[in-house]
Amino acid sequence: MAAPALLLAAFPPELAGFDAAPPPGWRVATTGVGALAAAATTARLMAESRPSRVLFVGTCGAYDARLVIGDLVSVGEALSVSLDVLAGRAYRPELEVTRWEAGWTLPFPAVTAAVPPAITVDPEGAALLATLAAVEHLEVTGVFAACAAAGVPAAAALAVANRVGPQAHAEWRESHARVSRALMAALAGVLSGG
Q1: H or E stretch covering 115
Q2: Which of 4, 74, 103, 183 has its CA 20 to 30 A from that of 111?
């Protein structure tokens, strides 16, 4: 019997009910918020169930006008980044891995997702990060890193819930449940294929 696939989200609302009724062939779990929590939880879940592949779903913020609230994207590349590094106030050791690519494709446009250590609220910071990525997300590097270390293919599908900047949290609160439901409905074919 084939190993189940693993469907992950940071917290239950982003699963839009799939946590209560997992698709056949999928195990469903949450990672917690942030890249470190996501990496640790994903590694633990993979050791427990040895999934055939991993799909992370969630919401994200758009850095600029390339995307609008409600757009659905896949993460082609996840980038661990910090505004202090980009501004030259800090640096990373050359040996540190900061980029991970998706291990399988989804039926949405692929974008680069920047994963800073915290949510960006500064418009100038958002503009700087927009030179590297289309969206901001908090967990995908942790999920991709844990999957890469285990040799398990991973993908991520995200719904744009807000614009990155000072109004991001208010926009996210208003739209995250709606765009999460739309994302999960759009993934029905992927999930039914197990």
Answers
A1: strand 110-115
A2: 4
